[in-house]
Amino acid sequence: MLPITLPINICCDTCQNYISKGTDVNFRKEEVIGETYMGAQIFRFHFKCTRCSAAIAIKPHPKKSDYVVESGATRDPEFEPSDDDEEQEQEQDTESDHEFMLDLIDIQEEQDLLQFALMTYNKWNNLVRDDQENP
Ligand SMILES: [Zn+2]
């Protein structure tokens, strides 16, 4: 058993105990048979509820750069205390989590477009300047 800092907020299915992100738990690592990402083996993490010792298992979701609860508990992204404004932000965060990689791709494309637009603008600007200098 090794210590791990819990990366997500979860709620124990057995005793409804909230175990918040950052809680230290002792875990046991297990290969997820047949599941790899970019050639790397994915491991399932087994640990026990801090209150009732029920078995809980989570595993990483590398495509989303996130973790999923496999058994024994329920993911609770809204556990973090917040006022109304922050709740709205959290909803947006959840949506963006799902499209984490898509967003990265979009950002890359946006930067390319920006670069292209800048080049075009500079070219156009130079042309205008040339016209003014040589009427
Ligand atoms: Zn429990």
UniProtKB/TrEMBL annotation:
Record InterPro entries: Saf4/Yju2 (IPR007590)
Bias type Acidic residues, positions: 79-94
One Pfam family it belongs to: Saf4_Yju2
Region (Disordered): 65-98
Biased composition (Basic and acidic residues): 65-78
GO cellular component: U2-type catalytic step 1 spliceosome
GO biological process terms, semicolon-separated: mRNA splicing, via spliceosome
Domain of life: Eukaryota
PANTHER family: SPLICING FACTOR YJU2
Protein name: CWC16 protein
Taxonomic path: Eukaryota, Viridiplantae, Streptophyta, Embryophyta, Tracheophyta
